[in-house]
UniProtKB/TrEMBL annotation:
It comes from the Eukaryota. Pfam families: Ammonium_transp. It is found in: Membrane. Functions as an ammonia transporter. May play a role in the elimination of ammonia in the gill. The chain crosses the membrane at residues 12-31, 51-69, 76-95, 107-127, 134-152, 164-186, 198-214, 220-248, 285-305, 317-339. GO terms for biological process: ammonium homeostasis. Its main location: membrane. This is Rh blood group, D antigen isoform X3. Gene3D superfamilies: Ammonium transporter AmtB like domains. The gene is rhd. Keywords: Membrane, Transmembrane, Transmembrane helix. GO terms for molecular function: ammonium channel activity. Belongs to the ammonium transporter (TC 2.A.49) family. Rh subfamily.
């Protein structure tokens, strides 16, 4: 049987989608050009981010039995619209200074990273919103993230890599606040939140794509020499967090079995946490220690913090986004601050 919102969705989604696309096309006609200085330096990174956004994040949230296939389609809708909207917002912010925007591979990479931030936020409210809600939410989230990125670079002179790595924290807490505002807290064990082997396998498929390509994600916009260090550190951190997540999952299960939903939360935490420390070029053992801490915090958060948020704050986090991205992201920035203080010869950071 079709969902109850189907009639209203049919009258709302197509007009909104066609209206937005028409506005975007007209905007590109007057304000966006193609760069005639072609560079393929970022094309490999663009491919990796492209796969992460549309396959990794797209399948990451398909574990729900009654919402699995829908979530992959909604992720495609949100990501495709968010990429276009991110380019529009970038152009609006730079229009007074640069005039017409020159579209490059770098700008597409930034747009897809903005889309990744909106997909992170979407994971919190998945299953409680229809595609129209998700579309409007992504427009607000991408606009806020792009504006925040521009303010950090323009006013505070923050480096590009640092401001971009805030996307995990920004997306996670944007989604958490949206869920809290909606006020649709559900029971800690709702029947529609169940998973089965088939849908969990699709979700694990997306998680493994994210896990394999995350080193490229963290090394974007760094020099070639720095990228080698960053890729190695990210890989080591994620390897440790994967082993840690499996160990914590077995310890928390009365029968000593592995819960793959808990593992999927913990194995990405190392990459999220170490991404904030990349500018300090941590030693391998530091990256591994960060992965260990992030894996423990993320897995335990998925087991205990998610139900606690529902009971105390009436805030439901469908994909445990706070544990996967929010908490490890904050941990990474604290580690970065500590490393900068330890390596600094002055009182400034």
């Amino acid at each position: 049987m079709a969902p109850q919102y189907a009639p209203s969705l049919r009258s709302r989604l197509p007009p909104i989608a066609f209206l937005l696309e028409t506005v975007f096309i007209l905007f590109f006609v007057f304000y966006v050009d193609v760069s005639y200085v072609h560079s393929i330096r970022f094309y490999a990174e663009f491919q990796d981010v492209h796969v992460m956004v549309f396959m990794g994040f797209g399948f990451f949230s398909t574990f729900l039995v009654r919402y699995g296939f829908s979530s992959s389609g909604f992720s495609l809708l949100v990501a495709a619209m968010a990429v276009q909207w991110a380019i529009v917002v970038q152009t609006l912010l730079h229009l007074p200074y640069l005039g017409r925007m020159r579209l490059t591979i770098e700008s597409l990479v930034f747009a897809e990273m903005s889309a990744a931030s909106s997909l992170i936020a979407m994971g919190v409210v998945l299953g409680k919103t229809n595609p129209v809600h998700l579309l409007l939410m992504s427009l607000m989230e991408v606009a806020g993230f792009t504006l925040n990125h521009w303010l950090l670079q323009t006013l505070l002179k923050v480096k590009l890599q640092h401001s971009l790595m805030l996307l995990h924290i920004y997306g996670a807490f944007f989604g958490i606040m949206t869920s809290w505002t909606l006020g649709k807290g559900i029971e800690p064990r709702h029947e529609k939140e169940k998973s089965d082997r088939k849908m969990a396998l699709f979700s694990l498929f997306g998680t493994l794509f994210l896990w394999m390509l995350w080193p490229s994600f963290n090394s974007l916009f760094f020099s070639t020499i720095a990228q080698i260090n960053i890729i190695c550190s990210t890989y080591l951190s994620m390897a440790v967090s994967a082993v840690t997540a499996i160990a914590i999952s077995v310890l928390s299960n009365p029968r000593g079995k592995i819960n793959m939903l808990h593992v999927q939360s913990g194995i990405l935490a190392g990459g999220v946490a170490v991404g904030a420390t990349m500018s300090t070029f941590p030693l391998p053992w530091v990256a591994m220690a960060v992965g260990l801490s992030a894996g423990i915090m993320s897995t335990l958060g998925s087991i205990y913090i998610k139900p606690l948020m529902q009971i105390v704050f009436k805030c439901h986090d469908t994909c445990s986004i706070l544990s996967v991205y929010g908490i490890p992201g904050i941990l990474g920035w604290f580690v970065r601050l500590f490393l900068q203080l330890a390596n600094s010869d002055s009182t400034t950071v």
